[in-house]
Amino acid sequence: MTADDFYSGSVSAAFGGNTSFIPFAAQHRGQSLREVVDTARDRAR
After folding, report:
1. Angle in degrees, CA 8, 45, 25, rounded to 5
2. Which 8-state DSSP code applies to residue 17?
3. CB-side exposure of 20: number of CA atoms within 13 Å?
């Protein structure tokens, strides 16, 4: 996964860090696609 969230990744980019990031929603065994999408959406808020 990642140590950054949308906020810290954006701040890092603004101060000369990585200027782009791609969110990735990993679906683990036993998780439904709906659960993964809902979790990823909630983390992006």
Report:
1. 80
2. S
3. 1
Q: What's this model's pTM, rounded to 2 decimal places?
A: 0.51
- pLDDT (tens digit, 9 = 90+) per residue, 6-45? 788 788 888 887 666 677 888 999 999 999 999 988 987 7
- Write out the DSSP string of 11-39: HHHHTTS-S---------TT--HHHHHHH
Contact 27, 36 (CB under 8 A): yes
Tokens of 40: 């990823």
Helix or strand holding residue 41 (H, E): helix 33-44
